[in-house]
Amino acid sequence: MKKSFYISGLLAVMLLTGCNENEQMVWKNIPGIYLSEYSNEVDSVYHTFTTSVGDIDTVKLDVKLAGRLLDEPRNFHFIVNESSSAVEGLHYQTLAENYVFPAKEAMVTVPIYVLKKGDELDDKIVTLALTLEPDDGLTLAYTDRVHVRILITNQLIRPSYWDMPLSLYFGPYSKAKHQKCIEIMGHDFPLKEEDLMDYNGVSGYSYWMRAGRQVCNYYATHTEYDENGDLIAPWDPF
């Protein structure tokens, strides 16, 4: 009797396990989308108009696919969260009702058009908070990779990676030096550290080594002060 009860219980467990596994397989077989560069831990990207020519610019968001590639295009969209301080039509263009994830592709890049009208952003940062949402035929691959905040301003933004490795080439940070770097190089620093490795057709950090020496040579022959009134002294660039 006990043996019969044990076998019945074992069969029940196996059936339940089989059902759970099938449910997981169904979920896994639905392709999922996610934001590859953002998570709950790192959810923000700065965009500054300091080096932009016009009053409109583009922030590109990479949306990736987890699971099998799509057999046919599927739609997805972004929701503008209530926490946003950016105003539609003033700080960003109206988002498309739907974006298309193409068939047989593992990633699609979504352009978000940000705006600068007037001088409001000269001393202000506004936030466009977005949440990725799938439509029919798609699901979310990772629930912690669906949110992104775009911080829009016309101020200089200190690169998050200045202390290492940029300080090796450009010395201690100041806004005045940052602005001079832009003038000498003709562009700002990349938003992401990984973009340093292959920049302007030069592999590795060679480009930044040369640029750092150019900026250092400028301060070796010019007496200038930073925004706090401190002398910007030459340093020993790497």
Write the layout of secondary structure elements.
Layout: H1 2-28, E1 32-35, E2 44-48, E3 56-66, E4 74-80, E5 99-101, E6 107-115, E7 125-134, E8 139-140, E9 147-153, H2 162-170, H3 175-185, E10 198-199, E11 202-203, H4 206-221
Quick rundown:
The protein is α+β, with helices and mostly antiparallel strands and 238 residues long.
Terminal CA distance reads 81 Å
Tally of individual helices: 4
Q: What's the oligomerization state?
A: single chain
- Computed Rg: 25 Å
Helix and strand composition category? alpha+beta
The residue fraction in helices comes out at 25-40%
Reading the helices and strands in chain order gives HEEEEEEEEEHHEEH
CATH topology of the largest domain: Immunoglobulin-like
Detail the poorly predicted runs. 1-27
How would the global form be characterised? elongated
Overall pLDDT level: 87
The largest pleated sheet is described as: 5 strands, mixed
Q: What is the name of the CATH class of the largest domain? A: Mainly Beta
Strand content: 25-35%
- Looking at CATH, the homologous superfamily of the largest domain is CalX-beta domain
Widest β-sheet, arrangement of strands: 2-9-7-4-5
Please give the number of β-strands.
11
- Overall CATH architecture of the largest domain: Sandwich
Structural domains: how many: 3
